[in-house]
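Study this pair:
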Amino acid sequence: MSLRRNLLPVSIAALVLAGCGQEAAAPVQVAAPAPAPAEPVAAEPSERERAAIARFEPQGDGALVLDRATGLTWMRCSIGQEWTGETCAGEAERHDWDAAVALADAFEYAGHADWRLPTRDELLTITWCSSGHRFATDADGAGGACAGSFRQPAILSAVFPATPALKFWSATPGTMSFTAWGVAFSTAVTGAGNRRDSEHLRLVRGAQYQPAAK
């Protein structure tokens, strides 16, 4: 079944598992570290990766997965793509932040009408650094890109196939009225960007996840 909708295009400044403000003059720009050489795709997933994949339980026809660690149910495909029974086909759509929030609020899929845009913290829980290493985030939760040599996109492709190695919106507003947080699945870095930028989106359902305090 198709997930396509018709809405608007957004640059989340450089956008990893961290927390979800005050008006200021301009958006905070987070410079991502220089991309590391891409890690070759392994023929077989490592033991660590197999354990991470096992965290997700396919639901129904496989179009959804339940994350046992957070209790959240995710769409395996990005908005605009279609689940074929084995993978995600088609082109992932891009929307500005306001359009993304509105689309999520009205979205019905797989017999559910309680889909929503994930918070920054929730979106970060599905990032994956195949290197096993990532940079620290700053006091605001920005940064946190994968470190070393890692595969792109920075997500478990066995769970979320055909994910664009690009930026995805979260529901978390920025500290300025015209910004919102997002995550870039090229490197798993997170940061705030202008709400008018066009980015991808993946929807979630379930009680909001709160990470353990550091």
Observations:
- The longest strand covers residues 167-173.
